[in-house]
Amino acid sequence: MSSHDPQMEQLVAEIARRVAARLGGAAPLVTLGSGPALRDTPCHDGPSDSCTSCGLCTVRRPEAVQHIVAEGASRIGAGLGTAQTPGDIAGMIDHTLLKADATAAEVEKLCQEARTYHFASVCVNTGFVPLAKRLLRGSGVMVCAVVGFPLGAMAPTAKAFEAREAVRAGAEEIDMVINQGALKSRDYAVVHEDIQKVVEASRPAKVKVILETGALTQEEKIVAISLSKVAGAHFVKTSTGFGPGGATAEDIALMRKLVGSEMGVKASGGVRTCEDAQKMKAAGASRIGASASVAIVKGCAQAAAAPKADAAPKHPDRPWLRRTAPAPAAPRGADKPSSY
Asked: Domain 90-302, CATH 3.20.20.70 — does that match?
C-alpha cells in the first residue's frame, strides 16, 4: 500500500471520527457484556456488614490494605482473580537521563539510585546501554533506550537499526519517537510502518511510542494512539521532555480509554512531584518517566508518613478501634514567664 493510499487515509479518518464522537458523546466505550472485570472496579462497601467478601481488597481497596500493612500485618489474603496487585510509585518509574552532555559518572549515579529505590528501569541514550546494563546486572531494574530521539524524523529503517543495536547491547525496553511530520501530513502508512519496523526489530524488548502530545491536535492524538496499537506497540507515551508541553491527566485518560487494558500508558514530561505522579496514576498511567524520580519517591514517603490531623475518624461508629494519642505533657515551668 503506497504512503498516500486514499483508502488508508479514508479508513483512518473514519476511525478517528468515530472515536472522537464516542469520547465526546454519551455513547459507551464498551458494549454490553464487555464491561470491566470485578478486580478493575473500585469497592465502595468499606469495612462493614455490606462487604461481599470478594477477596480482591488488594486491588479494589489498595489504600485500606496499605494501612493494614503499616499497622504490622506481614501477610494479606487474596481471592481467585486478584492477578497483579498495584505496586508503589517507585516501581512505576523509568529513571531518566537523556540530556546530550550526560557523562558516564552521571549514568553511574542514575543506576545506583535505581538500585536503591527499585525503579522499574533506567532510561538512557543508546550509547550508554552497555554501561547501564553492566551496572544494573542482578538488580531487577531494566535498561530502557530511546530511539529516534528527540525529533523522530528519521527513516523507519534507521530507527529499526538503532533499536536492534540497543537490544543487542542489553536494552529490555525501547522508547521510540513517532514521525510527527508524517502524522501531520496524514501519511498514515509511513507512521504505521515506522512503528511496526521498530517493534519487529526490538523483539523481545517492549516498545513505547512517544507521541509528543503537546504538539498534536486531539484528532492527531487519536490517530497516533490507534496506529500505535495496530502496529503492535506495547505502550503509548506522552512526551520526550524536549518538546512543547508535557504529560497531562487529560491526555493520559484519553490514551487509557483508547488502548484499554491491553497496553501500557506512560506519563512523561513535567512529572516532578509525588502529587504529579499520583495524578497521572489516577488518570490511567502504568509507567512514569521522570528525572526527578528520587524527589518523587521521597515526597510520597513523606506524604504517607505525615499525620492527617484533619482527617475524619476511620471508624466513627466503632470508637474502640480508633487510636488516641496521649496529650503531650506540659514542660516544666511552662506557667512561668521566660527569663530570656
From this structure: yes
